[in-house]
């Protein structure tokens, strides 16, 4: 009996750490997405492009004799400014251009890829998140002109989805640029699949360098990548942005804005630490709004193993761009890069923090989720199931310009129907 007991103890001693490690891995990987297959037949790489695509789909390629367009923007510019729905298929390649979408009706950009049909998720990465779709849109721009004078952040964006130049501007001051009241709403339903957008202005945070701007528009991104260092993604006024199975990489305030962003089953890649991951400005309205950024069932991880060792315990979940900042990390894996206290104030002499600031977490996991330290810091709000309930789904937070809730018809139905949404 003693020998049997000793054997059992020995087995438990060996197996328990393995079980624990496996359990931790499962929790870290529980956020992984199934790829959206809505356009999988159209996106497949075949010798007959456009096979399986919706009728009228345009084809962009840099090296095919069968195309009318060698740049993505030229294809966008050819579209009628009317109520029709349009689709553009983009062949593999690196496209060095800025993209500007102003048309009000649905437009879908498809990157050619076999990944959707093969069931391969894009955000399914654990360390080095500088990985690539086969379609790359690249631009290098910071917020200074050729004389060194500061210009609006909007001029730097790789992709802009907004009806007018004014609707894309960030502006300055506590309320940002005053978009004219008669500005029309832009795209009711813009979508992009399996495309990376990279602002290569610098190899570290050197001022705003946007990969994406969404203002006065609805935009959904599926298996896309957004790569920069500072202010990677900007969701402007009346902007609604949905990210599924995507990667957003940055260093300083790389999810920022005024509108509403929902990040689902995606990866936020920390290229270094500075400011916070999120920085939001709340806006007063005559109706109840939920403008803010929501990171759900996702992962926040160091961009690679080298940087992970350098930034351990140093990265903030966010900081308030104004005192009405709203953001929540829900059911999300936080790696050891995250500060124990979670969120921080804007700065030592300019905290921008008050009783309207809502910087929160709910039921997260991982080594960066320290509930007691977050509570003790008196900045991060640790939510319970009752308080978080109004924020648990895209339908609960996305609203129309007039304030009506449940504004989700522009989101791909496969992503919306996935478990947990």
Q: Can you give a write-up of this model?
A:
The protein has 10 helices and 25 strands. With 421 residues, the protein is an alpha/beta fold. It has a single domain (37-416), classed as Pectate Lyase C-like, CATH 2.160.20. The chain has an 11-stranded parallel beta sheet. Strands 3-6-9-12-15-18-21-23 form an 8-stranded parallel beta sheet. The chain has a 6-stranded parallel beta sheet with strand order 4-7-10-13-16-19. The N and C termini lie far apart (52 Å). Belongs to the pectinesterase family.
Structural key phrases:
421 residues, alpha/beta, Pectate Lyase C-like, eleven-stranded parallel sheet, 17% helix, Pectin_lyase_fold/virulence, signal, pectinesterase, EC 3.1.1.11, pectinesterase activity
What is the element layout, followed by pairings?
Elements: H1 2-29, H2 40-43, E1 58-60, H3 72-77, E2 86-90, E3 93-96, E4 99-101, E5 107-111, H4 115-118, E6 135-139, E7 159-161, H5 165-168, E8 190-193, E9 196-199, E10 212-214, E11 218-222, E12 225-227, E13 233-235, E14 240-244, E15 247-252, E16 255-257, E17 260-264, E18 267-274, E19 278-280, E20 292-296, E21 299-302, H6 305-311, E22 326-330, E23 333-334, E24 358-362, H7 371-377, E25 381-382, H8 385-388, H9 394-397, H10 413-416
Parallel strand pairs: 1-2, 2-5, 3-6, 4-7, 5-8, 6-9, 7-10, 8-11, 9-12, 10-13, 11-14, 12-15, 13-16, 14-17, 15-18, 16-19, 17-20, 18-21, 20-22, 21-23, 22-24, 24-25
Family: Belongs to the pectinesterase family.
Signal peptide: 1-21
Keywords: Aspartyl esterase, Hydrolase, Signal
